[in-house]
Please model this.
Amino acid sequence: MAVKLLAVNPTRMEMTKLKRRLVTSRRGHKLLKDKRDELMRQFLELVRKNKDLRELVEAMILASHRNFQIAAAVTSPENMRESLMFPKQSVSLEMTYKNVMSVNVPVFSFKMASDDPTNIYPYGFSFTSGELDASIESLSKALPLMLQLAEMEKGAQMLAQEIEKTRRRVNALEHVMIPQLVMTIKSIRMKLDENERGSLTRLMKVKDMMLEEALKQKRKLTEEGIAAYQQAN
Model:
């Protein structure tokens, strides 16, 4: 792909400015590459943790669903609805942020209304089965892991977006901006060298013309002196 030169005047001052921009662009390119590599490392680590946690959460939800199906089979629909109509436990969720390579990743924290881990069953045990207890317990244990999973997935999504933006900036510097600056500086240098050679050529021509004129004057004076000497003799 042909590199398009920047529209600047071919002067030494402009060339100096472009050289400073080139140094800054190369430094920025290195910093952005380092940032991209670190983001990729943290992203891959987060994805691995997210995969393991998702498998665990899915297994817990599947076990809860299986127990709930068994409980629904041995319990009348009326008793099931009455048992689950009024939840006994409530959760308050707070969200803060942590900075990961200039990306504000959300951090979820929650608090149960009751600190008693057994205070999760919104029914008595007379008309329900043990499978329903196991289902409720599995969901209670899966809840904090689900929140952690949501935090990880949102963080991974935001890191992926930042990686893509950083990658585009690195490519823009590497394949557009830096080549443009290099080629423009080279073009200005060639133009200045050409102008310098032209000026030198003109100076040499002027010098030759002055030397030739001086020789003519000297030759003329010599001829006049000879003529005057001959007339005197």
Q: What stands out?
A: The chain is about 75% helix and 10% strand. Residues 70 and 131 are 7 Å apart (CA to CA). The two ends are 84 Å apart (CA to CA).
